[in-house]
């Protein structure tokens, strides 16, 4: 009998326990995916050993038992084999691994992402047992185990600030797009991430494919078993990059497409021919079954045609994220906001979504219900709780859009030291929703998403605690529209 980890599984061994999860928090799904995610599990110390010997390629139970026996030298080999089979059967029932009588059968059962065929429902057998049952959620387990010290699980790395496009709405000041990350620095950061049990990396720029060692970076991320998200305009995509992307089943790509009218897209990117290159690259990714998501920010230039991108994405089974959140540049200049929609224009967008998108209301109501359960002592967002950003010069920031708030530099201190010891990290980590009293008392709060970078970038002094009134107006608008809809439903 052969066993292997599924290709979309992430496992981290903390020695005293193990953590296993699917890639649902980071990977991209087809728009009609059944969303039947596997979930995550905490494994005991011995369970972590049993899982650690599994790989992404099939191995016989005899090979696995020999590896396990090196960890438990005093245990009877027969008992190890019986325990391993029972343990792996439970894991397979929970959807984390696959088995087969032959190498080929085992490998085929590991269904890969594909645009050509829809992935069947995840095998979720009705097992009455779970893996080392626990009454705690995974997050609660981590918080208790690490004594309420947040763990860094997501890291955004800008491998270059240079970009071949000049998008009119970009939050990065164009004068700052000047350099590349040093290869040795990137590999050193990656080694630190491995030691910190990081799960996910976002690689971006500028335009990341401008870096001469982009493929080398992707390869090392794959070797370390990181889930990877690449943010790129795709205009420089080539066969070498495609080949490396295909090799990592935990990799996904996010690109921007602003209109199916090439003139409008190119007007926004200020790069003639960019539409044709990006569209061609998207189709190339689809042909090679590389998970993809499209971002289509709605602004004055494409407000009347953004739906063409949404519809084109739907035709190709690609999710398109379309919203009107344009933030100021991180040097507090606001020239890019000239393309931002007015409140009245946003009203028209929302009404159109309500009338023509059947899922919009459902998703909106779900988000509202979730926010109703929030507490004043809840964290504001993920920055400094599970994520930070590193720029190409080694500077560490709360997030990619918030680069006037320096947390440290990985050339001067380890990422571990910055994460656990930086006073600025502790300050942001200590902020709670109650520190924004205007928001806590606001009747529109469940129709809004609190965001410190929106506040900071648009405030001349970079103060994240000064509320941005523009987004308050949007929250108020959302509430008004939702109340009007409910009233119509009652009266109809």
Helix-and-strand structural type: alpha/beta
Residue runs with pLDDT of under 50 for 5 or more positions: 118-135
The separation of the N and C termini measures 62 Å
Q: Which sequence of strands runs across the widest sheet? A: 12-11-10-9-8-7-13-14-15
What is the helix tally? 18
Brief characterization of the structure:
By secondary structure, the chain is α/β, with parallel strands linked by helices. It is built from 18 helices and 15 strands.
Give me some keywords for this one.
alpha/beta; nine-stranded mixed beta sheet; three-stranded antiparallel beta sheet; 39% helix
Can you put this structure into words, describing what you see?
This protein has helices at 45-52, 61-69, 77-93, 103-108, 138-145, 183-195, 214-223, 239-247, 262-269, 274-287, 306-315, 343-356, 358-372, 415-421, 423-430, 437-441, 452-458, 469-491, and strands spanning 2-5, 9-13, 18-22, 40-43, 59-60, 97-100, 154-158, 200-204, 227-231, 251-256, 292-295, 320-321, 387-390, 395-397, 408-409. It has 492 residues and is of the alpha/beta class. Residues 118-135 have low confidence and may be disordered.
């Amino acid at each position: 009998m052969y066993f292997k980890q599924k290709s979309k599984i992430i496992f981290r061994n903390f020695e005293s326990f193990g953590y296993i999860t699917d890639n649902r928090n980071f990977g991209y799904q087809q728009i009609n995916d059944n969303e039947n995610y596997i979930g995550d599990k905490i494994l005991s110390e011995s369970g972590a050993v049993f899982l650690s010997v599994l790989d992404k390629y099939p191995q016989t139970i005899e090979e696995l038992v020999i590896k396990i026996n090196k960890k438990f030298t005093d245990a009877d080999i027969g008992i190890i084999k019986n325990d391993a089979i029972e343990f792996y059967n439970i894991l397979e029932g929970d959807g984390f691994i696959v088995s087969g009588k032959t190498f080929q059968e085992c490998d085929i059962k590991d269904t890969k992402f594909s645009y050509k065929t829809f992935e069947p429902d995840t095998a979720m057998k009705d097992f009455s047992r779970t893996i080392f049952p626990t009454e705690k959620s995974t997050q609660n387990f981590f918080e208790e185990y690490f004594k309420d010290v947040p763990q860094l699980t997501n890291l955004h790395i800008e491998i270059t600030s240079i970009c071949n496009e000049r998008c009119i709405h970009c939050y990065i000041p164009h004068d700052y797009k000047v350099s590349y990350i040093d290869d040795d620095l990137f590999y050193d950061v990656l080694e630190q991430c491995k030691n910190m049990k990081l799960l996910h990396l976002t690689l971006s720029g500028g335009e990341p494919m401008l870096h001469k060692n982009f493929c080398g970076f992707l390869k090392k991320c794959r070797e370390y078993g990181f889930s990877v998200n690449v943010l790129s305009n795709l205009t420089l995509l080539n066969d070498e990059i495609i080949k490396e992307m295909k090799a990592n089943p935990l990799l996904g790509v996010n690109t921007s497409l602003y209109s199916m009218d090439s003139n409008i897209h190119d007007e926004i990117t200020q790069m003639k021919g960019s539409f044709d290159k990006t569209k061609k690259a998207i189709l190339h990714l689809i042909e090679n079954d590389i998970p993809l998501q499209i971002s289509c920010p709605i602004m004055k230039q494409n407000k009347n045609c953004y739906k063409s991108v949404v519809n084109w994405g739907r035709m190709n089974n690609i999710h398109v994220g379309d919203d009107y959140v344009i933030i100021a540049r991180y040097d507090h200049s606001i020239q890019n906001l000239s393309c931002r929609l007015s409140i009245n224009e946003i009203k028209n967008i929302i009404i159109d979504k309500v009338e023509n998108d059947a899922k919009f209301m459902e998703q909106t109501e779900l988000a509202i219900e979730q926010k109703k359960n929030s507490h004043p002592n809840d964290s504001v967002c993920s920055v400094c709780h599970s994520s930070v950003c590193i720029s190409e010069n080694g500077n560490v920031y709360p997030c990619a859009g918030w680069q006037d708030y320096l947390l440290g530099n990985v050339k001067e201190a380890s990422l571990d030291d910055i994460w656990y010891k930086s006073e600025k990290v502790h300050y942001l980590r200590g902020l709670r929703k109650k520190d924004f009293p205007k928001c806590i008392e606001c009747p529109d709060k469940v129709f809004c998403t609190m965001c410190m970078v929106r506040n900071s970038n648009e405030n001349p002094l970079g103060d994240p605690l000064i509320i941005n009134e523009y987004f308050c107006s949007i929250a108020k608008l959302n509430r008004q529209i939702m109340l009007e809809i409910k009233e119509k439903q009652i009266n109809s």
